[in-house]
Write a structure and sequence with these properties.
The chain is built from five helices and seven strands, in the order βαββαββαββαα. By secondary structure, the chain is α+β, with helices and mostly antiparallel strands.
């Protein structure tokens, strides 16, 4: 049985900086998509001349992240905020995904997944290339380095091991 309500799934900076009010926050799992540093950032963590590298949900696997339940009275404002934040260059698609919360409930959540046909889709880069993009990236939301280190720290808090992010964070400290 799927519980109703307006839910948002975060797998990167939304986990630690949602930017909207929420009524509930739970560790959650989304199947069919995996967290990957696969998006060249041209705004938030880089520029077109010096792109950074940020997370996207790419096809395959599963992803542990955080699901937020938003009160219905805040739905429109939250959706407008998220669209302005996440769809700034349209590298993500907005979809509804089935998410399992840490308490066993299943919910439908708003999820942003990467568009593999978009020019900012980086695909699978080796660690050396990822590190180079992260080191050079700085955008309107700050240094790409801070994004990677903060995301890694929050994954550790959730008990999630991401070998690539752990390696990158160690290189950046």
């Amino acid at each position: 049985m799927t519980e109703s309500g307006f839910w948002v799934f975060g797998y990167g900076s939304l986990m630690w900086k949602p930017g909207f009010d929420y009524a509930e926050r739970h560790v959650a799992t989304l199947h069919g998509w995996r967290r990957a540093l696969c998006v060249y950032s041209h705004v938030h963590r880089g520029t077109p001349d010096k792109p950074g590298l940020v997370l996207g949900l790419d096809r395959g696997g599963s992803c542990r992240g955080v699901a937020f339940r938003v009160e219905e009275s805040q739905r429109d404002a939250t959706l407008a905020y998220l669209r302005e934040r996440e769809l700034v260059t349209h590298v993500y698609h907005e979809i509804e995904g089935a998410v399992r919360l840490d308490d066993g409930r299943r919910v439908k959540a708003l999820v942003y997944v990467v568009d593999q046909r978009h020019a900012q889709y980086a695909g699978r880069l080796d660690r050396a290339h990822q590190l180079a993009f992260v080191r050079q990236g700085r955008g309107v939301s700050g240094a790409n380095r801070d994004y990677v280190v903060n995301t890694q720290a929050h994954l550790v808090e959730l008990g999630v091991r991401d070998a690539t992010l752990a390696w990158l964070a160690a290189q950046l400290k």
